[in-house]
Structure formats: C-alpha cells, structure tokens
Amino acid sequence: MSAKLLSAHSTVFKCWQTRQRGLWRCLSTGSASLGSGSLKGRSCLTLKDFSSDEIKSLLWASSDLKHRIKLEKQYLPILQGKSMAMIFEKRSTRTRMSTETGFALLGGHPCFLKPQDIHLGVNESCRDTARVLSRQCDIILARVPNQSTLEELDREASVPIINGMSDLYHPIQILADFLTLQEHYGSLQGLTVSWIGDGTNILHSFMMAAAKLGVHLKIAKPKGYEPEMSLIQEAQRLSREHGTQFLLTDDPMEAAHGSNVLVTDNWLGNEEERKKRLKDFEGYQITMKTASVAKPDWTFLHCLPRKMEEVDDEVFYSSRSLVFPESENRKWTIMGLIVALLTDYSPQIPMPKI
C-alpha cells in the first residue's frame, strides 16, 4: 500500500515539475542559451573564478534583461517566490539600490540586513549565520570588510553567495563597467583601459577580468600603493594567456597614453590619511591634460562616490564621462548575475559583440 502511495505521489510531483518547467519556458526561453556551462548554483566571490565565456554570458544576460525590461517594457517575474538576504556591514548607495530594486523588479523579495540586525560573527558565528540564512532564502549578497568572511559564508552556506564588495574584490562593479563599455564602443575586444589611482579592490577585479575579455590594462599608482603581488602575477599570467598588454607604472601620463578608457577610484582615504595621500597622489587627478594623450575616442569611468581631487569637474561632467550610465548598469548586471546563479535563463536577444 505504501509503495502505491509513494508511486502516486511521485507521479503527481513529476506532473507539477513538468508544469513548472512549462511556465518557466514561457518566461525565459529565447533564441539561444547561455551555453553548455550553466552558472546555476555557483557563487560569485571574485571574477578570478570565472572563465572568459562565463563572464561574457553574464554580460549577455544583463544586456538581455535591460533590453526586455527597459526598452520593451516586459514584465518578467523570473524570481517570483524567491528571497535574498542582503548583508551590509558597509554602507552603500548603488549596491543596495541596484540589488534591492533589481531583485524586486524580477518578482523576488530582498531582505536588507544591516550590522544592527545580524551581528555577523559577533552574537552569532559566520558559520551559523550561513546555515540559518540558507534555510530562509535562495541567495545571499554580502558587503563585508574581509574577503575571508565571504569565503566562510560560501563554505557553510547551501545557497549561492555574491560578493557585494570586500577589501579584496568588487566583482559586481566590474561587470557594470564592462557592460557600459560594450554598449558605448560596440565591443570590448582590443580596448585599452588605464587605471590611474590606488591599488584597490576595484582594480583587483579589473585585473582578474580584463584580459579574459581581450582588454589591455595599464595601471598607474604611486609607490607604496601597488595592487596585491599575487594578483599582479595572476594578471600577468592572464595577459600572456589571452594575448593582451599589462603595464604597471608610477607615471599617470604613461598609463593614459593611447588609452580608450580612463578610470579611477576613491584614493583620498579618511581624514587622518588625507594630508599624506594628497602628497603621495600629486599628479594623479584626471584632467583634460591627462586625456590629451589618450585616444580621440577616450571615455571616463568612476565607481562613485567621487572626490574633486580624483577627477576634476571638466572631465567628470563632460560628454566623455560614462559614470551615470555606469551607475545605472549596476542594476542590470546584478540582475543578470542573480538570474544566472538561480535559474537556467536563456536570453532572447543575440549575443552582443564582446
């Protein structure tokens, strides 16, 4: 009797599964898939863990969602019934707004957890938090001071973890940057990006992805503000593997020479460091003089918030500045990433030239 009941229950479940797959196909099936290597169930702690084709597939999904939702005004409740824990130990405008609104736009329920709510590693261990949240939600985004916290969350959680920014990497910012450049130039292959500033988490993420997309990377930083040595070595290896250029210098004009894209980040630091950093970074403000040695089609990126000492108003508010489209694309790329990690999404538009 129990065997018959089990068989009947199994038949009902299979029918339900078939129905759900049919509904899903109505929502997401397109003319092509993201490829044979599904990202479903993966975490995104660093783009170092993603291949060239995988990063391209994330940009494709992001571009597709932007096209369908923003331009075609489609309603795509792809994440209906799913929830996301958003752990923020550091404040943010773009990461919070893009993730919260993007997840909700796709039908999901984002849950924002600030330090006063969750006490990560204080009142409750990171290990226990990961296991509890895995039973409450489908995915976790964490913006934390230490990369090691993300790695522990990933080890202990049974759901995907997304790095919303750590001391070492900021992968979701770089996805937005590359989507912005792809939209502007029509292709990423052969572009030269010049980083002028501090050896930050954003630079580290550029270093782990640029060569994989055929992008040359030139870095100018003052002495003592170098990127992590292990990441320099990895970037050099990736550059050799993919046939791109990788330059490290302490001369901003050398880095800017012949570049398509000028990029900087917040290098001013806190008030205690301000005086020393202003001296150390003398000559590192991006101005029209910097741009004068770049290519005629040069553009400018900054992850924001920005300080005048990093880039002057003439460049920042010029027609060459892509900072506000870049900021908007934080939303579409986090949506593309989440959809790729949680579903078997298939874009409808042809794959952009990347």
From TrEMBL:
The keyword Kinase does not apply. Its main location: mitochondrion. NCBIfam families: orni_carb_tr (TIGR00658), PRK00779.1 (NF001986). It is found in: Mitochondrion matrix. This is ornithine carbamoyltransferase. PANTHER family: ORNITHINE CARBAMOYLTRANSFERASE, MITOCHONDRIAL, ORNITHINE TRANSCARBAMYLASE, MITOCHONDRIAL. Belongs to the aspartate/ornithine carbamoyltransferase superfamily. OTCase family. It comes from the Eukaryota. One of its GO terms (biological process) is L-arginine biosynthetic process via ornithine.
